[in-house]
Amino acid sequence: MKTRTPIDLLPDRTAGTVATWLRGHPEIEVVCRDRAGAYAEGVRTGAPDAIQVADRWHPWLGLAGAVEKTVIRHRADLRPPAETTSSNDGIDNPSSAPPDPTESGLADSRLATRTRERHAAVHELLAQGRTISYISRTLPLDRKTVRRFARAADAQDLLPTTRTGRSLLDEYAPYLRERVAGGCVDAAVLTREITELGYRGSTKTVRRFLQPLRAAHTTPPSRPAAPSVRRVTGWLTRRPDRLTDEDRVGRDALLARSPALATTGRLVRDFAEIMVDRRGQDLNAWIGRARREGSPALRSFAAGLVRDLDAVTAGLTLPHSSGAVEGHVNRIILWNLRCQDHSRLGWLIGTIGSRVAVA
Hints:
The chain has 17 helices and three strands. It is globular and about 75 Å long.
């Protein structure tokens, strides 16, 4: 009969608790962990000779998030070029459509993008247990600015709204015009679509914005619809052999007309090869390329890897992984929520080797 090795459940996630537990287990040679700073510090203190291995799932999740931000930044490239343009089309006639804010508000758009990236970076470091002072030195930002970003639960709270004469729809106006030009004038449908892109306003606001577009829109032009941000992100981050023929055609056409997304696609492919082939020795070179060629979101992702470089490199080199344990943890949580029967949770605990710890 197969025996099960008990698992110690620590009372909290602090560095001190982790360090104390590791000191009582000097046989530990490898520690698989996530990217939390408290775990890294606890291992350095409690088992300084142990090899720290960052799991492979979290870096890939971070890369996918950076890709999504990059696609949003270049969503104007998503729409396939029109074969013909009618001068009578009210949507393309500047005199019959509301002014496009993408030119006059270019600086505001850049400010919004930078604000979202800084908000994400600050909260990522906070989740790792970093202090305001550490974050201020690392990013670098003024301590007051870091506190303001830390207090904001959502980056949208930091962006200017109608208080400065701007509308919540300014950022999504080009997308809405494109969708109306493609024949979609349903305010509810369009509200759902831009909500996925980050819009936080109401359907009523969208409906008011659409009124002059509907009046100018007579016969929808024959134009292919732009793929969604989510779909394009999937094109760039899924395994190529899992894409349909239609997906591959759409992806190749998009990358041919968008140099920025083509560069993003190459960087994602190269990172995937490093991860799958466990070529951690190539990570430094990849980080250098991402910093030189990548979008702001990819450069921010690369900077995050540098802050935990040794553990991430080990995770992309060694066979150790906390993936199986992460799966067990998720199953335990779901089981606990469903039945609240703590006596049966042992059924879901797997065996962990005595020389490897998982944080």
